[in-house]
TrEMBL record:
<dbReference type="GO" id="GO:0032259">
    <property type="term" value="P:methylation"/>
</dbReference>
<dbReference type="InterPro" id="IPR012327">
    <property type="entry name" value="MeTrfase_D12"/>
</dbReference>
<dbReference type="GO" id="GO:0009007">
    <property type="term" value="F:site-specific DNA-methyltransferase (adenine-specific) activity"/>
</dbReference>
<protein>
    <recommendedName>
        <fullName>DNA adenine methylase</fullName>
    </recommendedName>
</protein>
<dbReference type="GO" id="GO:0009307">
    <property type="term" value="P:DNA restriction-modification system"/>
</dbReference>
<dbReference type="Pfam" id="PF02086">
    <property type="entry name" value="MethyltransfD12"/>
</dbReference>
<keyword id="KW-0949">S-adenosyl-L-methionine</keyword>
<keyword id="KW-0489">Methyltransferase</keyword>
<dbReference type="InterPro" id="IPR029063">
    <property type="entry name" value="SAM-dependent_MTases_sf"/>
</dbReference>
<keyword id="KW-0808">Transferase</keyword>
Amino acid sequence: MSDGPKIKAIAPWFGGKRNLAPKIVDALGDHRVYWEPFCGSMAVLMAKPPS
């Protein structure tokens, strides 16, 4: 895996998690599966390392 730059949210909008994404990722802890039913701009998905 590359330690390159993180991908930013595709389309930031009001109510998005772009600014909160790093804190949300920290709160997730270790996991094997990550599922986002309402992905919106996928800010959290793009901020987290692969499962």
